[in-house]
Write a structure and sequence with these properties.
The complex is a heterodimer of chains A (about 110) and B (about 350).
Chain A (H helix, E strand, L loop, with lengths): L1 H28 L3 H27 L3 H30 L5 H4 L3 H4 L1
Chain B lengths: L6 H24 L3 H21 L3 H23 L14 H19 L10 H4 L2 H12 L4 H9 L1 H23 L31 H23 L8 H19 L1 H7 L2 H24 L14 H32 L11
The chains are: A mainly alpha (about 110), B mainly alpha (about 350).
Chain lengths: ~110, ~350
């Protein structure tokens, strides 16, 4: 049982780390604000979610797990709001999503 | 809490954090977009806070995260509302400053060669008064968090000095920026002068987004409760007046950012803020005077109660509350002073 938990926790930890890396690459490579926001939201939803799950599996049923739950709840509340606010601000500042700006973008990609 | 993990992992972690800090610092130097610079400096502070936590200095880490990564970024961003957001190019080649920085840097690095290794039990810093504090704090003050005992009781003079520094800094900023009356809402019109009308209302862009409003209303009570927890749990765990003051100010500032400065001013009026800034210092210094009057030394809390230990406890609690009052109101006052100024391309102040 212990071994199963260990393996499961490491798989989720690595998965979470992979999502963080993918999100980082996305923020670096994607063409415009909105697409980058999408990549960033990957980090603090799936990335942090899986990392916290992995750490919770390591900690077992303890106070640490409870704290992790609170952290995930807090991040889950704040980060979509921050993403939303950023996107809203970008729209307000007149930034257009690239796909709308140049209709031929899909064919180029 | 015990640190799990091998020293190698810890070394690797510290090295990565320091490396990222160097990257952030280079970014701050190289970038010309001041928004990015401000955010990168916030990243730098947050890395610093993480490093502090990794070094088991949780109290310092909390302060750094609250002040460096939170408050400074907000204040600097509100400054950016008043200036241009791109750094003006300079014609002069900064040769002399470069030489000075390099020389000072080399001297500092050379200086660190003589420092004892990190965590060396024989280092002078560990052998002077620290063992005594560690041995006596529990018995004398009853505060399980030695950091709080040292900060508020043994080193009460230092902390009083720090609070006085914050007080002076806050008053200085307010006087420089606002003349204490011009933008702070305390302007007194000379009799007979025409009513200038309501102040130009900044457009509360954020107020229109329902998501932000709801989320902030959900978060505000959590932040305030957390601030109170940090304040009153400071004897037992990491935290205290400094961190709690900043956290409480953050709540009001967040409210102001979303619902507009006038709304925040209705919650925490400038009059109250200006009253609280000196009040905290007076509470701190007054505790010292009280202990003098009761026959003890200045800031010796043992005489505040019939039992020395509960006297110490009471003193620490009161003093931390004084710190909280001054820190929170100073942060709020500085934020008001910056955020209430008309923007650069907006209407000029009359």
């Amino acid at each position: 049982m212990d071994g199963v938990l260990e393996v499961a926790s490491w798989i989720t930890l690595i998965l979470g780390g992979a999502f963080c890396v993918v999100g980082g690459i996305g923020m670096w490579r994607l063409p415009d604000v909105f697409a980058r926001l999408h990549a960033a939201s990957l980090i603090d939803s799936l990335g942090i979610g899986f990392l916290a799950l992995g750490m919770a599996l390591q900690a077992g049923l303890s106070l640490v797990t409870l704290k992790l739950v609170f952290i995930v709840l807090l991040v889950g509340l704040t980060s979509p709001v921050a993403t939303h606010a950023l996107a809203q601000a970008a729209m307000h500042a007149g930034v257009k999503p690239r796909a709308i700006e140049s209709p031929g973008a899909e064919e180029d990609a | 809490m015990t640190t799990v993990g091998s020293p190698e992992i810890e070394l690797l972690l510290n090295a990565i954090l320091l490396l990222l800090m160097v990257v952030a610092a280079i970014g701050v130097i190289r970038l010309r977009n001041l928004f990015a610079v401000v955010l990168l400096s916030g990243v730098y502070s947050f890395l610093m806070a993480t490093l502090m936590v990794a070094l088991d200095a949780v109290d310092v880490g909390m302060t750094e995260a609250a002040v460096g990564a939170g408050m400074s970024v907000v204040l600097l961003l509100s400054v950016l509302g008043l200036t241009r957001t791109r750094e003006a190019p300079t014609r002069r080649r900064p040769i002399v400053p470069l030489i000075i920085s390099v020389v000072v840097g080399i001297a500092l690095v050379h200086g660190t060669m003589d420092l004892p290794p990190f965590g060396d039990p024989n280092a002078p810093a560990q052998r002077h008064v620290a063992p005594e504090y560690l041995a006596r704090a529990q018995v004398e003050t009853g505060a399980p968090n030695v950091v709080t005992a040292v900060l508020a009781s043994y080193r009460g003079y230092d902390t009083l000095g720090e609070v006085a520094v914050i007080f002076t800094g806050g008053i200085g900023v307010l006087v420089l920026l606002a003349g204490l009356g011009r933008y702070t809402g305390l302007r007194t019109r000379p009799p007979g002068a025409p009513d200038p009308g309501p102040e130009p209302k900044p457009v509360p862009l954020m107020e229109e987004t329902v998501v932000l409003r709801v989320a902030v209303k959900l978060l505000l009570p959590l932040i305030l409760v957390f601030a109170m927890y940090v304040q009153f749990h400071g004897d037992f765990g990491p935290g205290g007046g400094f961190q709690a003051g900043v956290a409480a100010a953050t709540a009001i500032i967040l409210y102001g950012l979303i619902f507009g400065i006038p709304a925040a001013r209705r919650v925490a009026p400038m009059r109250v803020v200006l009253f609280m800034i000196p009040l905290g210092v007076l509470i701190f210094a007054g505790t010292g005077v009280a202990s003098l009057l009761l026959g003890g030394n200045y800031l010796d809390y043992s005489v505040l109660s019939s039992v020395p230990r509960s006297g110490q406890h009471l003193g620490i609690l009161v003093v931390e509350f004084g710190v909280f009052v001054t820190v929170s109101s100073t942060m709020l006052g500085i934020f008001y002073a910056f955020a209430s100024r008309p923007p650069r391309d907006g209407p000029e102040p009359s």
